[in-house]
Design brief:
alpha/beta, Rossmann fold, 2 domains, 3-stranded antiparallel beta sheet, 36% helix, elongated, CoA-Trfase_fam_III, CoA transferase
Length: 377
């Protein structure tokens, strides 16, 4: 059975993370993704460390199942060779600063003259308009500018950098895919294409729905790690064990809270955490700090109280639960014949179809001759 996006052609001008992850998802669903790279070095992520084969592991993870053509976008003759691909492109994804593609003659207005119903998705940090539109930034800047980082950023002595690239993935990749699919559905009904302005910073506000609402409704805005889900409650925080591990404690509902308190033997006078949250937190810290993770794990598991030992990524990949669900069963290969687990994607098995996900990323310019002809090499 073909994938859900079988027959859809994507022309991908994006680099690094947000765009390539979005087009990875589209490729996983059966779309034909053609990655446009600069000749010689290709996109920047190919040169990242650590290397895995000829290119970086980051590039291999994000670009499997795609085709690669090498085109000098600054050269008018080279750009003209893209015309046959533009004519059949259902979707164009780009990630340059605002105005760059237009200066290259590849902006939305240029592309839709050739393909009127194209869906053109631009991914940037701050969007195509507004005072910050041309400003450089990275994930840490976007989450800092939107107030997300301030909700839980550690202390001045030990500031905490989040381990996930939230803006790039949750603010860029996922909204790009969501809106591309909505635009495809709309095109099915109207025959019209669309221009999609995906701003990573804009898309972070839904992740703060609780703080967004609380601040406006009460006039009291959450601060650094002082809210219920950011470490301000005994019921939702990390507690250190005797052997240097952490317990993720999240028994927000009363039934789970009572089960947790009983499991660890918390004194009855401290169970009502509205009386003195600080005392309750301090005592739980003492109890957990006196036990090892190995001792606590079966106790918490038996209590079924939304509490668990924080695992390393390596341990998580060895979890029988994820193995049974097949998350890491798909192989990723490189040009040296090495193999590892491919990055899992959120694409449902029914949407992937059969044989729609190749096991390796393309070599630079591997498909230039095939797609643009021998004179393009």
């Amino acid at each position: 059975m073909p994938g859900a996006l079988s027959g859809v052609t994507v022309l991908d001008f994006s680099t690094l993370l947000p765009g390539p992850m979005a087009t990875l998802f589209l490729a996983e669903a059966g779309a034909d993704v053609i990655k446009v790279e600069r000749p010689g070095r290709g996109e920047e992520m190919r040169s990242y460390e650590p290397k895995w084969g000829s290119d970086s592991i980051n590039f291999a993870m994000l670009n499997r199942g795609k085709k690669s053509i090498a085109v000098d976008l600054k050269d008018p003759a080279s750009r003209e060779r893209l015309r046959p691909l533009i004519e059949k492109a259902d979707i164009v994804v780009e990630q340059f600063r605002p105005g760059v593609m237009a200066r290259l003659g590849l902006g939305y207005d240029d592309i839709r003259e050739v393909r009127p119903d194209v869906i053109y998705c631009s991914i940037t940090g701050y969007g195509q308009t507004g005072p910050r539109a041309a400003q450089a930034g990275h994930d840490l800047n976007y989450i800092g500018d939107t107030g997300l980082l301030a909700l839980s950023c550690g202390t001045t002595e030990s500031p905490v950098v989040p381990p996930a690239l939230i803006a790039d993935i949750a603010g860029g990749s996922y909204p790009a895919v969501l809106n591309i699919l909505l635009a495809l559905r709309q095109r099915d009904k109207t025959g019209s294409g669309a221009y999609l302005d995906v701003a990573m910073a804009d898309n972070l506000f839904p992740f703060m729905y609780w703080a967004f609402g609380q601040g406006q409704a009460t006039g009291t805005w959450p601060g650094n790690s002082d809210a219920q889900v950011s470490g301000g409650s005994p019921r939702y925080r990390l507690y250190a064990t005797a052997d240097g591990h952490f317990v993720a404690v999240a028994p927000l509902e009363q039934k789970f809270w009572l089960a947790f308190c009983a499991a660890i033997g918390l004194e009855q006078e401290l169970v009502d955490d509205t009386v003195s949250p600080e005392r309750t937190t301090r005592r739980i810290s003492e109890i957990i700090a006196a036990r090892t993770a190995r001792e606590l794990q079966p106790v918490l598991a038996a209590a079924d109280c939304c509490c668990s030992i924080v695992r390393s990524l390596n341990d998580a990949m060895a979890d029988p639960h994820f193995a049974q669900r097949g998350l890491f069963a798909r192989p990723l290969t490189n040009d040296h014949g090495q193999e590892m687990a491919a990055l899992p994607t959120p694409i449902a098995a029914s949407a992937r179809g059969e044989g729609t996900a190749a096991s390796r990323a393309p070599r630079l310019g591997e498909h230039t001759r095939e797609l643009l002809g021998p004179e393009a090499e």
